[in-house]
Amino acid sequence: MQQTAPPKVYSLSQVASSIRQALARATANRSWLIRAEILKISPGLGQKTVYVDLVEEANGDQRAKMRGVIWPSNGARILEALGNDASTILAPGSEMVFTARIEFHERYGLSLFIENVDLRHMLGEMERRKQATVSRLQELGAFELNKRLPMPAAPQRIALVGSPGTSGFRDFISKTLLHPSQRRIHVQAFASSVQGTAAPKGLIEALQAAEASAPDLVVLVRGGGSKLDLDCFNDFELCRHISLMGIPVWTGIGHESDLVVADLVAHSYWKTPTDVADSIVRLLEIATSDVSDIASLLQQHVIHWLEAQQRELDRFGSQIQWSSQAIVRSQINSLRELEMQLGWHAERWLQSKHQEVNTLCQLVERQSKQTLLRQSTELNQWLAAPFRRAEQQLQYQKEQLASMESSLAALHPERTVKRGFAMMSRKGEIIADLTGVKVDEELKIHTRTGIAIVTVQSIEPLAKNKKTKIQTP
Questions:
Q1: The pTM is what?
Q2: Do residues 235 and 200 make contact, with C-beta atoms less than 8 angstroms apart?
Q3: What is the DSSP string of 116-183?
Q4: CA–CA separation, 282 and 353 (whole Å)
Q5: How many domains does the chain have?
Q6: Which structural domain, as residue segments, surrounds residue 460?
Q7: Whose CB has fewer CB within 10 Å in the chain, the N or C terminal residue?
Q8: What 8-state DSSP symbol labels residue 84?
């Protein structure tokens, strides 16, 4: 019979080397254009080797994760190409498009050696997503929903959504809280990140909390930035949420020229956070001026009305003075007649009431005696009832005890023995069977005429005619 050869065993380095060679043949050492999100990046770009953790997520789940490497020479070239946008593009949470070579090392595993960041492709992808968001929102009719909400004439309770510590956030706070208007502005801040892939979700949560506080106006601010920095404000879910809010939303996102989609769905938008603050202060100044004008007009109307009322009052005063004198004389005569009638009627009324009081006293006295007699009888009956019940209960218990004594006497062991039966005991205790009894153990048999002391010779189970053998001493 032919024997099968044992499988060949490969070392780990041989496996890794095979993977490296296969990957080199598959990629042909060419560069790939890749899009991924930065999870973590080490410092020192352009000065030393930088390591980047790259991920791809879909609906909150990681679909892929790899390590990227940027050599110092490539890092310097990337810094020069990105300029001032480098710190925001190459940051955790940001999405970037880059060219890289795919290499596998026997010791360090698979890595993407990043050569350059394709800013032009990133801007084109961002514009494509923006236009797709605009089209979807237009189909839903979302651009006019928030604009239809009535705007308060003097918004004083402001819910501010943004990133505390940024210049735009501070500019809005200082401009609104230090304004010279007589009306006070109350600003409540709701913090959220305003940059990166996680920013839309954080902004939606902050807007929900802001709306729950029931302000007059919700203000969404960001202190400027590049087009890539502002991409989170083109997110469909964020823009749809802004359009559906039940409170007017003003935006001051700090864009230079092109509008973000959040501006289009908001009630009103301004170029910078400072412009939003100026508009709010201007509304308060207009409202204050309108109130002052209305107060002046109201004051003039009140003065004219008071003057007319004073003239009418003077005329009525003269009529009242003449009429009051005639009325007083008539009332004096009426009072004199009433005084005479009151004296006669008062005497008759007092006599009548005196007779009613006497009759009532007699009635109360009779009813009180009858009530006391009835209550005394009921009380005696109530006091006697517990004693009768107690005597009945004691008699019943005596009869029960007598019955129990009779039963116990009839069941006593001595009565059983006297009737011709025998009892068996072990160590002073009456036993009903041989459970627990051992060979050579001493038992006592109680009869009517005496007690027999026996020793157990053997114990056999009861079966047919077999009986337990017991030997007497």
A1: 0.49
A2: yes
A3: EE-HHHHHHHHHHHHHHHHHHHHHHTTTTTGGGSPPPSS--EEEEEE-TTSHHHHHHHHHHHT---SS
A4: 80
A5: 3
A6: 417-471
A7: N
A8: G
Once rounded to an integer, what is the mean pLDDT over residues 128-142?
Answer: 87
In a shared domain, residues 139 and 279: yes
Q: Which of 7-21, 161-175, 383-397 has maximum average pLDDT?
A: 161-175
Contact 416/446 with Cβ under 8 angstroms? Answer: no
Place of tokens 């997110």: 235
Q: How many helices (H) and strands (E) does the chain have?
A: 10, 15
Residues 272 and 145 in one domain: yes
Q: What does the pLDDT average to over 193-201? A: 81
Single-letter code of the amino acid located at 387: F
Pairing assessment for the beta strands 109-117 and 61-70 based on DSSP bridges? parallel
Q: Is 426 helix (H, G, I), strand (E, B) or coil?
A: strand
| Range from 14-28, 43-57, 290-304 that averages highest in pLDDT | 43-57
Count of residues for the chain? 473
Q: Are 89 and 36 in contact (CB under 8 A)?
A: no
Distance CA 131, CA 234 (A): 9
- Residue 95 within a domain: yes
Does the residue 75 lie in any domain? Answer: yes
Six token digits for residue 126: 């961002």
Give buried/exposed letters for 184-214 (b at 16+ CB in 10 A, else e): ebebebbebbbbbbebbbbbbebbeebbeee
CB 219 within 8 A of CB 276: yes
